[in-house]
Amino acid sequence: MNLHTGYKLMSDISSPVPTDQDIIQLENVSVEYRVPQERIGTFKEYMIRLLEGRVKHRNFNALNKVSINVRRGEVFGLIGPNGAGKSTLLKLVARVLRPTHGRVRVMGRVAPLLEVGAGFHPELTGRENIFLNGAMLGFSREQMQEKFPRIVEFSELGDFIDAPLRTYSSGMSARLGFAVATDTQPDILIVDEILSVGDEAFQHKSFERIQAIKAQGATILLVSHAMSTIESMCQRAAWLHHGQLIAVGDAEAVVAQYTGRVLENEAERLTTERKTVGANLALSQNESPSRWGNRKIEITHVHITDPSGIEQAIFNTGQPLILQIDYEAHEHIQAPVFGIAIYRQDGIHITGPNTTQAGLTLPTIDGPGRITYEIASLPLLEGLYSFSIAVVSQNENEIFDYHDRIYPFRVTNRDAHIKERYGLLTLGGKWKFDATQLMEHK
Amino acid sequence: MKSKTGLPVTYDSTRRGSVVFEELREILNYRYLILQLVRRDILTRYKRSILGVAWTMLNPLGMMLVWTIAFSQIFKSASLPAYPAFALNGLLAWTFFSQTTTASMVNLVWGGGLLNRIYIPRVSFALAAMGTGLVNMLLSLVPLAVVMLVTGMPFTWTLIFVPVTILIIGAFALGVGLLISTWAVYFPDIAEMYQIVLTAWMFLTPIMYPEEILPQAYRIYITMLNPMYHMVKLFRIPIYYARLPTLMEFLVPLSISLIVLILGWVVFSRKSDEFAYRI
Question: Which pTM was predicted?
Answer without folding.
Answer: 0.77
